[in-house]
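Predict the structure of AAA domain-containing protein.
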Amino acid sequence: MPQRPINPLDPRWQSRSEQQQHSFFDPTPRSPQPAPQAAPPPAAPPSRGAYPPAPGYPPAPPQPGAYPQPNGYPQPNGYQQPNGAPQPNGYPQPNGYQPPPAAYPQAYAPAAPPVAPPVAPRPVSPPPAPAARPAPVAPPGIRLDAPAAPPGIRLDAPAAPPGIRLDAPGARAEPALRPETTGARIEWRQTRGDEGLDRSAAVMRRKLGKPRVLAFANPKGGVHKTTATVLAAATIGSVRGRGVLAWDDNELRGTLGLRAGSARHARTIKHLLADLMRIENLHGDALLQELDAYLRHASDGSYDVLAGEENPRFAQRLDQDTVRRVMDLLRRTHDVICVDTGNNVESVNWQTVMRTADQLVITTVPREDAAFTADWMLDVLEESGMGEMVANAVTLISCPSPGALPLLEDFKKHFATRTRAVAVVPYDPALEVGSSIEYADLQPETRQAWLRAASVMLEPFAE
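Done. Here is the predicted structure for AAA domain-containing protein.
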């Protein structure tokens, strides 16, 4: 009777001795198999900083003679592999076959982060006190403790140019420091120290009511009569901008035409008188254009010049009627006419200018002969019925040299008793050479003195 195949998984078969365990498929008894060697323990996972090892990791190495567990996991219900080599998937293996030891990567759970010890709360400090606001710094000329500025005044306005007053009508200034932001009270204060210059310029800018004639007179020669006529016209013209003329009415070859204005032509009053009747009949722009052909102009264009004739015999033609006609013509085109009257008080043209002038200006220098001649001229005018003109006259003292002048103070006191005002202009090296007079070449102190002197001359007529 043939033998039935034996199930290798039958416990009866497995309990038999090794010599008896042969079957139909393997009739030859198996040779004793060597015991399987223990698998090496798995490598420790790489360290990850300061994390502590997970519980139960790494697993303990297997004991000698024990079988490794499948996939490294324990079997349920205490199941243990039978004696002998492990059988993968429950099938017998060929003779001498040894399965490779299982070496699976071991998974591990990340360690919990370390718990930091409790930290005591820091005491809450009070917020720092706000820093004290720095005191505002006022610009030059501004007082923060002064009364508040009047409405409409700004202190951050640009500085005024020379000769301009910010507190004059039409001027504006606004404050750079505002009281609502700084808590200070601000007052506008003029930064320029000499307010008299601003007042002088303002006087000369005003309307004069009608064209005015300023007569510069002194019978003595060398008393800066021509120089004063030119500089007065230049000063007034620089402020007013236009409408100023200097006329050389000297009957004995005056030099005003040579020292003032640009000699663009050689025409003088002689040529004007030749065409006077034709020019008198013109009006408006036509009159201005026609008369301009007979005038010379200052280099800066601030005033015009009517030059005198160089021929001494021409003085016979300057009769009273002719001088008046010329004066009336010039008043139609100019606002201020400065006349150099010459030295002969007996000449008709000199006396005619004196009677038609609005302001008499007595020029002198601090010398006795010059002062004596000026006094004598005032007496002649008073005797001629022009006492009011003498009382309203202005005495202009020009310093011919630098340094102290012993008679200056005495002359100022003396002429203050005979005329309305006394003005003093200092020495300037630009006037010493006797050549062309350029207003821009004067020293600042000289220009300021002439500004004050010219304002005194026009002050009675300023509206």
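The two ends are 163 Å apart (CA to CA).
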